[in-house]
Write a structure and sequence with these properties.
The chain has strands at 17-22, 28-35, 50-56. By secondary structure, it is mainly β. It is globular, with a radius of gyration of 11 Å.
Length: 64
């Protein structure tokens, strides 16, 4: 099963939690940001990168 495509900066976060900045081919960058469900994801440090949810919030407010 193919991995989900990273979310683009400025897209709405589908779930709350920690998002990792990933490279154009899905590589790790070591950078993370907290995303809040329904809010826009922040800009990435370089063009062509995106965000991937790595640690969802473990309370009811973060559930989709």
């Amino acid at each position: 099963m193919p991995a989900k495509k990273p979310l683009k900066p400025g897209n709405t976060a589908p779930n709350s939690g920690q998002y990792e900045e990933v490279g154009p081919r899905g590589g790790h960058t070591g950078k993370e940001s907290t995303g809040v469900k329904g809010k826009k994801l922040p800009p990435t440090s370089k063009p062509g990168q995106g965000w991937k949810l790595v640690d969802p919030t473990k309370n009811k407010s973060g559930k989709g």
